[in-house]
Every structure is written in C-alpha cells, then in structure tokens.
Predict the structure.
Amino acid sequence: MPVTAATGLVAGTGTASGTAGWEDLAAGLGTTADDAYDGSDLWLRYVPVSDPNLLWKYRETVTTVIVENAGRNKVHRHTPNLGMAPGSAERLVESTLEAARDELVRGLRGLLDRAVPVRADPGDRPPGGAVIVGTRDSSQLVRQHLSARDLASVGDDGYLIRSVSRGTREFTVIAGNTEVGALYGTFAFLRRLQTHKTITRLDISESPRVRNRHLNNWETVRLYSGNNPSGTGGLNGENGTIFNFAATGQSAGLNLPVILDRYIVVARAMASVGINGITINLVNADNVYLTPAYIAQEAALADALRPYGIKIALSINYTAPTDPRFAPDTLTNEQLDPHGAEFRGWWNRRAALVQASVPDFTGFTVKANSEGQPGPQDFGDDHGDGANAIAAAVDPLGMKIFWRTFVYNADVDEDRLKRAYLEFGYIDDERQPDGTKGRFLDNVFLQTKNGPLDFQGREPIHPMFGRMENTNQALELQITQEYTGQDEMLCYLGPMWEEALKTDTYARDERGRLLDKRLMGHIVDGTAQGHSDTAIVGVANLGNADNLTGHHFSQANLFAFGRQSWDWTLDSADIAADWVRMTWSNRGNVVGTIVRMMMGSWEALVSYQTPLGMAHQFRSSDHYGPNPAERLARDDWSPVYYNKADSSGLGYDRSPTGSDFTAQYFPTLAARYGDIDTVPENLLMWFHHVPWDRRMRSGRIFWDELVHRYQMGVQYVTWMRLTWDSLRSSIDARRFAEVESKLAVHEADAGDWRDTCVNYWKRFSGRDNPVDGGPLSIKIVVGGRAIGAFDLSASSYPIPVPAGASPKITKVIPSDRAARYEILSQADGVPGQAVVRVIKEDFFGPIVKDYVFVMERAST
C-alpha cells in the first residue's frame, strides 16, 4: 500500500514568519502507513494526488504560498499557560491568517507530495503559481487585484477565489473581508485539490446563507463516539467526549488548559465546512460550567478555537441562580421573577464573568420546562417571560439566547406533536404596545427540531417553521445518530436534511398570499420573512474515539451538516461525493460505489425501522433497538402511543377527524396531510390510522406494502455489506475491517427490527407475511416442480426433493421482470444446500436477497 502524508505539524506554539519557518512546518509532516490509518484526521487527510497528469498540472499551478502580515492580527488569548499536550503533532496558532497559511503548507505538502515554499514578503510582484491569501487590509497583493466592490457581496464570512493573469504569470488570490473569510476560502481551495477539481480559471464567490452555524456538544448523553468498546463513554479517566474538563486517573493531567491534538483537528474540520460556534455542554445543564474554575477552562478552549473563527457558548439551567455553589451571589425561588431586577441582574453578572475571560462568548442555550428541566412555567410564567428575562440581561453584552422549543407538557394537548406550537405560537402573535407583533426579543432564537417529534428517521417538517413570523428561529438537527443507528449503522443523513430544507411550507403573508420564497430553507435563512439574524444548530457527534465520531461513515454527517448549514441548497449527493473523495479515495469506481451506498442508506433505515410514516418504535433503554409493544409510565414515551395498532389498522390519526394536528400547518399542507388520499405515503401513519387492507399506490394492500418495506430495508443493508466487501482491495486495511464489522452488526440489527415489528403487527392484522409478490420474490424449479411462496424475511427454506430426483435448481423465475438472479451454488446431493442471489434496483437503491435452499428428502 502507498504511504500518505500525515496531517500533524510540529509541536509547539510558535509560528512561521517571512521565508523562514515553512521548512520546519513541512518537516513536521510525517508519514503513516495506509493500513494503520485510524480516521483521526476526519476529511482533512491530504493524500498525494494519484493521477500523474493532474499532479503535474497542480504543481504547475501552485508553486508558492504568499501570506502577508500573517501574524499581525493576533487573536485574543486569555490563558497565559495555554499549550499543547506533550508529544502533540498539532500546534497552536496566534492568528487566523496563520491558521490559513499553515493549512496550505500542510495540505499542499500532502497533496502535491512536496513542500511548497511560503513567503511573507511578495517583493515587487508575485511569481507565477503563487497562491495569495489575505484581506485587503492585510495584503497589498489582495488590494492590488481585488477591489472593495469585488468583496462587498461576500459579507463577513464569505470569500473570493480568483485566478489572475499578468503577462506570462498566472496566480491565485484567496481573499475575504475578514481573516475568517480568507480561512474559509483556503479550505475551499484545498477541497478542490482534494476532490481533483480544476484550480485554474477560477472565479468563485461564496458566502453562507445562514449567519450562525453552530454545534451543540452533548457531553454526557447521546454520545456514541467514546473510546470504550461500546462507544458510549471513555477510557483512561476520560468521559468519552471530545473535550476534557474533569478527566481523572491517568488522564488527569490532560484537562484544559492543556490542548490535545483532537481539539485542533476538530477546530480545523469545523472551520473547513464553515461551522462558527459550539455550545460545549449538554442542554440538561450542570451549573458547574458557570463556576470560576470551569470558566477558566472554557477560556482556554475558546483561545484554542478562536483562530479558526469558532466561538463558544454554554447551556444553562433556568434556576442556576439558586445553586449554593454561587454563594453569596445566590437567589431564592421567590426572586426568580423574570420581570424583576434580581433575576435579570444575576444573569447579567454571571454572563459578564464569563465574558471577562471569553470576550467573544456567544451566549446561552436553554432547555426549559422539558423532561424535568426547570423553567418559567414552574413559577407561573411562560416561555416568553423566561427567555426575554435572560435575553434582556445579556443583551448589553452582545449575547444571544437559544431557547429550545422541545416541550411536550401532556396537560397542553393529548397529541404530543401539537404542544410546542400551542406553547409558543401565541407569544409570536402577541400585539405589542408599539403596534408590532411578537413578544420575543430580537436576541432570542427559538431552537426548533426539524420535525415535530424527536429526531426520528423521517418526520414531517415542524409546523412552527413559517408560523413564527415575528421571532428568530434556529433549526436544530441531530448529527449524532440517536434514532438513526448510533455508532453501529451506516446512515448518511444529508438526504434527510435536504428533504426537510427543500420542503415547501406553503407559507403565506398577512394577506393570505403565498410567499415567493417559502421552502423550509428560506424560512431558516431569513429570506422568506425578512429575518436578518439566522441560525442552524447541530447536535454534535464528536468524541474521543480514534476516528472522533465512532463510525467512520458518521464523519460524513458532520461534514454534511457544515456544508448544508453554509448552503442548504446544495445537493446531498454532491456533498457525499466530495466527502468520499476527501476521506476514502478519488478512484472513480470507489467514489461511485460508496456514494451509492450512502445515498440509499437513510431510506433503507426508515424502511426497516419506521416505514410509511410509523414513528418512535424504539425500546426505551437505549433508543437503538425495537420494542413496538412497550408501554411506559408516561404515555407519550411509549411506542404503543404512536403505533395505535388494533384490528382495523395502524397509525395515529392527526387528521381533522382525529387530533387535528394538521391544522397547525399552512392551508395547502394542512389539506394535503389531512386527507389520506393525498398525504405522501412516506408520511402516511404520521397523520392517519391506516386500514390493513387499504389499497396503496403500488397496487398492494397496506399490510403487504408495509411488510415489503421492512424487507426491502434489510435487503439494502445486505447489498451495502456485499458492496463494501467488493472494495477490500481499494480501502486501507484498518478502516475497511472496522466498517466491515459495523456492517455485519448493522445487517443483523436491521433484521431484528424487521422481524420484531412485523411479528408484533401480525397480532393485530391477523395476516401472514406476503409471499410471491415482493420485489425479490422468486420461484424455483427443482425436479421438474415449481416451488414458491417464500417469505422474504426467512433466513433459509427447506425444499423437499422426491426420491430419485436431482436436487439441482433448473430454473429461477423472478416475480419482478426487472430482478436479476445468480445461482451461487448448487446442492451436490440430498441433503444439500443451494444459494440463489436475487438483485433488483428499487426506488432507493439496489436490494439483494440470498435465498438459502436446504434440499431435503421428500417424505413419501
């Protein structure tokens, strides 16, 4: 196997300047054998370009890096003893342009398989092949070749990448209005080389559609990327999350302010896709993060992340002022009046204390009156009162409040899905003394999940998107795969987020006219209803596992979140292709194969878990496996609450004749979802109790279609496993084996989902599994007799062979003409075994069934 350049740089906190120093940076790049690579560089593994012609073109186009005044604008550093852990490969930088320069040194050294010299002084004119990075303020070359008007349209975070010709000299300018914009442009330029795209004749202008692109780091729950064998925690005294605040034992010396390599890798990766903020602790917040000792550690983390344009935030508990750890500055319950000076004053003081150490601190995320967390409703107030109180307290400090709308008080309505809008909608509609509508302050974001339930594999869009016309909304997505396979199942979430963001809300203005821009993405980016401050938040999947995300393919979800947060109009397949090229290989067959696996993986998961709009059939212990029969003390945590299985059918009636949840949508969607004949079939049971014998669009009855969907989901996973096996010679050994092992578990667990759910539904439907009509159904001819009626869910099939007859399969007859088959093996005698593989391209990708036929002597 070839060797590749490692991404580590020499340890230390110094930076290169002038023409000296870049040799040291390049020399710090070691090598690591492909077969031992652990995935720890995420998608920033700069492998030498394998195509010799392309490599020659790249080397001709890139000969020198010029970054003027790289260290002039040093970022704030609060922590005097900030340093890398002993033996680190990464390094601390002191400015954003230093980060950009070092990334180019690292990336070009790896991709071009040779060091590229760095210059700080361009001299009289840049040489041919120069790559110039900076702003108009930092670089005379940028000022010379890009006008202020050229850069005006890209805003603070955007960038230009432009090829410039001057006589016989050609060079590339990467520039932003800010150093962060120039850094984003640097990563975009390197991404072009990583994905083998052209880097000549460039005229690229990009800026993010959404202003705040944040991660929420849940450090104690829903963590599937720890370094212990289960992936849900940590070893060696660490708790398994990405950052160390309270590690013990042999890791006690690695707590902040010590900076670990993985912190810098994650910072670089976040910046590479434009993520610019992270809330570092769980929304079920521990008040310890507001204590001076923890604030000192948070300041160190912020110092390390700051050069990459990343700002930190904290989750807080609404009743934190009553915590005795803050004595003597504590309040009583009676003083938690959101309209009173004591409550607002306390939050102002505490926020100012954080800001003194972290001057660019973003603000607070709040989970209030949800799942046992305290909030204003405990004291007779509403969400508007509570959110505005803290928002008013921190507004003079320039901070924001992200108030989560994940609430479902059973007293509000019998249907859990209706409750959030009922608790927040009236506050948005409230007329104010100045004649405006909406009570939430301008520095409040309502942080709302993409769907109305809880990060299920497929949900309808949340009706609050578009309905909260007068309030800032942040879309919350879950990158960590709580209900979508955790660290075991390969499930690429880009298509799910794309489906949601490109769903038409049919939002209307006050006069009832359809908005011109009304997709959910338009609501989120503010263009639909004129919101200037916008946000997308992703519940992160980062831990201390070697590959940082638990499953190698889970890295793709973090990458996709960043890319779609930057520009939600991007195609998820294109994002997948870039990630594959940056992570696995640029070989065409490998790229095409892996992208195909990824693009059907989400639809397959929905099919074997919750097809046709079924929801929340997970066992309560871990939210991983199935338990459709489970009934818990709380109704709306119970799978039976959602499936409503009975002898007549399956699904929750939320139509106008049921809970009327559909009325919360704009009229067009309300009518579509409320009618069983017009609702999309993939959302059917979200809105209707469906009769077992209802005729579906496929021509099959509902029961048969339901069972086939479960079967097809499993059969896609089988195809993924077999397809991954075909890539053995193209993928490095360690990562190949780790994914291979995951796919084996994935296939078995998908089968468990199918069998557990279908067998439970049988109790109510009174029907057997359909046979002969499935997409992979076949009949076989043995001994001159046609045999069929095979349940696709079975693992093997006994075939009686009459005495004297041959056990050979002489003919295979697929039910679907589009299906292909191959006889993999024949029985040599009786008893014996034959295997027939059937393959078909279905609506979400290829599906495969290996029929194992056990030849037995027929009884006489």
Notes: Residues 429 and 444 are 15 Å apart (CA to CA). The chain has four domains: 3-206, 212-584, 609-652+689-765, 778-857. Residues 733-765 form the longest helix (33 residues).
